[in-house]
Structure formats: C-alpha cells, structure tokens
Automatic annotation (TrEMBL):
<feature type="domain" description="NADP-dependent oxidoreductase">
    <location>
        <begin position="24"/>
        <end position="268"/>
    </location>
</feature>
<dbReference type="InterPro" id="IPR036812">
    <property type="entry name" value="NAD(P)_OxRdtase_dom_sf"/>
</dbReference>
<dbReference type="InterPro" id="IPR023210">
    <property type="entry name" value="NADP_OxRdtase_dom"/>
</dbReference>
<dbReference type="InterPro" id="IPR018170">
    <property type="entry name" value="Aldo/ket_reductase_CS"/>
</dbReference>
<keyword id="KW-0560">Oxidoreductase</keyword>
<protein>
    <submittedName>
        <fullName>Organophosphate reductase</fullName>
    </submittedName>
</protein>
<keyword id="KW-0521">NADP</keyword>
<comment type="similarity">
    <text>Belongs to the aldo/keto reductase family.</text>
</comment>
<dbReference type="Pfam" id="PF00248">
    <property type="entry name" value="Aldo_ket_red"/>
</dbReference>
<dbReference type="InterPro" id="IPR020471">
    <property type="entry name" value="AKR"/>
</dbReference>
Length: 303
C-alpha cells in the first residue's frame, strides 16, 4: 500500500543505520496521551517514535510502544525509538550513564535506536557527548546525535568527538528553515530532523500554504509535511488524535511541483530559531538544575 510504503521509507545515517523519515513526537503530551498516541501511530504504520526525559512522558511512551507492537503484531526492532539526554543530567560518564539507565527503565526498553543531547549546555556538552560515545560503543544505543546545535557549537563538538553526530534535530518549518545550519550539517553528513514542522501551527494559516492546499485538495498540514519530505528532512510530527495521526501520514500519493516547493522555500523569514540567551544554562557557570517539565497525570495507572 502506498501510504505504508512511505511510512516505511528510511534514510541512511552516517553510521549506516537506517532511520524512518517520518515519525511521531510526543512533546507536551501527558503519559496517558503519549501511550495512546504512540500505540495509535504504530498500529497505523508509523515506525519512528520520538520522546525525551524533558517531556516527562517516557513511561507513557514506553507503554504505548509495548501496546502498539502487540496490536500491530510487530517486534521491538520494527520501531525506531529516539529519546534525549536531559540538560540536568549532563556531565561525566557516570552521571550520563545513570540517567540513561533510568530512561531505559521508564521506557521499558533494553536499548534505544537514537540518543540525542537535547540542548548544548555550554559547561558540559563536550564531556556529555564523550559519555554518549561510550554508550554507543557499549551497544546501548545504535546511533547518537544532538539537538538545537548551531554551527559554532557543532564545530567545537566535532573537534573533540570521535563520532560525528548522526542527527541534529532542529526547528524546521516554512518560516524557519535554518538554512545555514542545514547547509553546514549536510556538508558534514549530519542529517537534520525537524521538530515543530508546522511552526507551532503558525504555518497552517499562511496564505501561501492555504492556496496550495486548495490547489492540491489537501490539508495545510499535508502540504507542509509533503514539502519537508521533498526537501529530504526527517520529520517528527505531534498529534494525540488518531484521525489526525492518520491524516498527517497521507502525503505519499501526491507530489508538489518543483515550482511550488520553491514557493514554500521563499517563505523563510531568515530568523534564527535558537534562543540560547533565554536559558540560564547558556552561561557556563549557571546552575542548570534537575527539574523536568511534567504534564501531571499521576495516580492514573497506565495499564
């Protein structure tokens, strides 16, 4: 089936690992919503799931993976799972390893396919990445990468790294295309993954996108997601509604013309999407703390 072929499509990372090009993210989902949306995604053909300790829903995500695999008759290795090193867990190997083992426990998994450093905490990101390299060598993860790294920090990281990051997960959408970062990463065989691919919903009401949606008889979201597909950006899209999860994946039976792809390319506002200065941990001497964002739903059993 055409839709499933699309969802099964992969991109080869720089270490030879195959990563699905389209997946479900669970940012700002509580544990129950994460469980239900992840299970729905897997039984409807999604083969990549993206979470993070920062989201406070790794337990729900893990429960959803278990449920979805059972419902779809799949094995663990059929789904590509990404999670991220929390800012407050950055530091030496012992600290990073302990945090990672806790994440595996919450997820109910023996390994993750991709482990990303969520943000470059200036005082710790070089040491933290070395710890992640060790996790890779130990076989606890299949690939490692980063998220929200600008070119300066990526360059500094690569100077001391033994393993070039496989992924840089960045905000990427029609109005924020991070062109300089995409060009730099591509030149070093680092694959970009898009978070906030719909621009937090802002892009859905863009007049250009709405006009193209009418032209192709598609939703605005499908136009944007198809554009990102044709730009060869791995995309992580969030929804907690099964109908929308299915609709978002229906982008493989039509194609935007080269002219229309370029029209969307021109929507880039040229603004840097990174906001390091807004975070206290941007300062090397800052106390970054150890809190995790939670959308609290405690007291309700996941099983």
């Amino acid at each position: 089936m055409l839709f499933l072929d699309g969802l099964n499509s992969t991109m080869t990372l720089n270490n030879g690992i195959e990563m699905p090009r389209f997946g479900l993210g669970v940012w700002k989902s509580d544990n129950h919503a994460a469980r239900d949306s992840v299970a729905a995604a897997i039984r409807n053909g999604y083969r990549a799931i993206d979470t993070a300790k920062q989201y406070g829903n790794e337990q729900g995500t893990g429960a959803g993976i278990k449920l979805g695999l059972k419902q779809a008759g799949l094995k663990r290795e059929d789904v590509f799972v990404t999670t991220k090193l929390f800012n407050g867990d950055q530091g030496n190997y012992d600290k990073v390893s302990k945090a990672f083992e806790g994440q595996l426990k919450d997820l109910g998994l023996d390994y993750v396919d991709l482990y990303l450093m969520h943000w470059p905490v200036d005082a710790y990101y070089l040491e933290s990445y070395q710890a992640m390299e060790r996790l890779l060598k130990e076989g606890k993860v299949r690939a490692i990468g980063v998220s929200n790294f600008d070119n300066d920090r990526m360059s500094k990281l690569m100077e001391s790294a033994d393993v070039i990051p496989a992924i840089n997960q960045m905000e990427f959408n029609p109005t924020n295309q991070e062109r300089d970062i995409l060009k730099f990463d591509t030149s070093h065989k680092i694959t970009m993954t898009a978070w906030s691919p719909l621009g937090g919903g802002k892009s859905l009401t863009n007049p250009v996108i709405e006009k193209l949606a009418d032209k192709y008889h598609r939703s605005a979201a499908q136009i944007i997601l198809r554009w990102e597909w044709q730009r060869e950006i791995i995309t992580v899209i969030k929804s907690v509604h099964e109908k929308r999860i299915i609709e978002n994946s229906h982008i493989f039976d039509f194609e935007l013309s080269d002219e229309d792809v370029e029209t969307i390319n021109q929507l880039d506002e040229g603004k840097r999407g990174l906001w390091y200065d807004d975070f206290k941990w941007h300062r090397p001497s800052a106390d970054i703390g150890d809190s995790v964002d939670q959308w609290d739903d405690t007291g309700k059993p996941l099983s």
